[in-house]
Amino acid sequence: MVKVEFLGPIGKAPVEMEAETLADVAEKLKEDGTVKEWLPKCAVALNDTMVSDLNTPLKDGDRISVLPPVCGG
Amino acid sequence: MELYRGPLDVKEIFGRWLDEEAASNYGAYIPFVGTIRAEDDIEALSFDIYEPVLRAWFDAWQERAKERGAVVKMAHAIGDVPVHTSSYVSAVFSPKRRVALELIEEFVEDFKANAPIWKYDVKNGERIYAEDRSTPMDGSGLLA
Question: Residue B69's CB: how many other CB atoms inside 10 A?
Fold first, then answer.
């Protein structure tokens, strides 16, 4: 199982799912209408490191963070 | 990197940073202060921060600054920050002014684009995500 957490204004509780790659996570998140709307503008971190490859393999206990558009300062 | 609950004590932070580098032989110290402006009837801005990714982002910037003989520092507020107070300060120290002038611009601009911080307007005690002023981080859309 991996855990997916939604940061900042997305306002959704974390979810756990079975996934072998980030592509699997993408497929499952698209089933949630509210989350699906956020995905085109969200970046992704795996265990707190930013990632850019959907083929990134996942292992049990991994934590995926979904980061919506930012505005610090 | 320093994070505070509520508005920043700008004078204390800048004074302390100046003291920290007093004997470091830097010829230039360029501070930046971000202050909350009164506009659109807001009472305050409010901030969420994802600290692990922010620290990684800042550490990468420290390395970039070090390669140019410089040091970057920053402090940011978490939670509500009333108008006319400060939510963000940063600074660059470098041996000569040119590097510091260039770095402060690059650092502050990348901060706006890629630091994992979310801003909300506070009106009538309610937090409203500042979506129209926010920027998707590098690599956004991966899961779409």
Answer: 12
